[in-house]
Design goal:
2 domains, single chain, Rossmann fold, about 325 residues, 14 strands, alpha/beta
Length: about 325
């Protein structure tokens, strides 16, 4: 099977869904002629024209407002916020309009819309362009929140997101756009809300997503050489969350590490830890360990950013502590 980069898999999903359904259109800053800040929409403007690949002004509130209004009237918009940090500019539209309208209208309207946005550090983009804010979106009923880690999942989950009748926050980690994996040529949909057992193991469980999935797989390989058999669960979907997959793994291994790029304090890992404590406390043989960023803005300086970001070494250290 051929391989594609994470970025090109997203591009292919957009193209195939636009060819399939004339109601799908794209909108965002510089996504047209330029092809997007990360080049994820390259060549789509040339194929579908300015009427379906819309270059917008630099105003996130208008972009999300466009998505809400057009989705409510029967279209299927896929809009891009260049970086997740900029979602804070239009968070009222996301949290108080997109998330709630289906409920507040008694189910009489649906909002089949997708908000694509990039997140994550390791690019020396400093404190206002490097955040991981997934926990904010999972706080609001009505939003689906997806965080694919591989090109394979990025294509399949984006297709599912576009076809879904609910508003979807589609989080793309900026530092894995170039990573490749096997991607089928045809359009395919990966079910929303289903985690993936990326690596089976019996000694401890690592639950993760996005960039830290790749760090977790590297950590598991290091641990394997030491005789420690780690299981890696790639969540893919943060809401709905496949808690059954997490519980099943913890009941098997008795030990849990949760790894993400976001700040540990009130990060999404805390939700996972709480769910495990509620449902599988007596299966745990050691305290749950959370791996994430420290409670400080991400620094610009490359040397400090490297220290700030969680990595495979910290997962390995946590595993050693748990195995004691």
């Amino acid at each position: 099977m051929r391989t594609l980069s994470y970025c090109d898999a997203i591009n292919e999903a957009l193209r195939q869904e636009m060819e399939r359904d004339a109601n799908v259109f794209l909108a965002g800053e510089d996504i047209g002629v330029w092809g997007g800040c990360f080049y994820a929409t390259h060549d789509l403007h040339a194929q579908f024209g300015a009427g379906r690949v819309v270059d917008t002004p630099i105003t996130e509130s208008a972009i999300v407002g466009l998505a809400i209004g057009s989705a409510a009237t029967g279209l299927r918009p896929v809009v891009e916020l260049m970086l997740v940090d900029f979602a804070l500019v239009c968070f009222d539209q996301i949290a108080n309009q997109a998330a709630k309208m289906h409920y507040m209208f008694g189910g009489k309207i649906r909002l089949p819309m997708v908000i694509r946005t990039a997140c994550g550090g390791e690019g020396n983009a400093a404190a206002q362009h490097s955040q991981n804010l997934e926990n904010l979106f999972t706080q609001f009923p009505g939003l689906i929140v997806l965080a694919p880690s591989t090109a394979t999942d990025a294509k399949g989950l984006l297709i599912s997101a576009i076809r879904d009748d609910n508003p979807v926050i589609f989080l793309e980690h900026g530092q894995i756009y170039g990573m490749e994996s096997e991607v089928p040529d045809e359009a395919y949909a990966i079910p929303i809300g289903k985690a993936r057992v990326a690596r089976e193991g019996n000694d401890l469980s690592i639950v993760t997503y996005h960039r830290m999935y790749h760090e977790s797989m590297e950590a598991a390989a290091i641990l394997q050489e030491e005789g420690i058999d780690a299981e890696v669960i790639d969540l893919r979907s943060l809401y709905p969350l496949d808690i059954d997959a997490i519980i099943g793994s913890v009941e098997k291994t008795g030990k849990l590490i949760v790894a993400h790029d976001a700040i540990v304090n009130s990060g999404f890992g805390a939700e996972i830890a709480a769910c495990v404590a509620e449902r599988a406390l007596y299966s745990l043989e050691a305290p749950i360990r959370r791996i994430g960023a420290p409670f400080t803005p991400i620094p610009f300086t490359p040397a400090l950013e490297k220290i700030y970001l969680p990595n495979r070494n910290r997962i390995v250290e946590a595993a050693h502590e748990l195995m004691k």
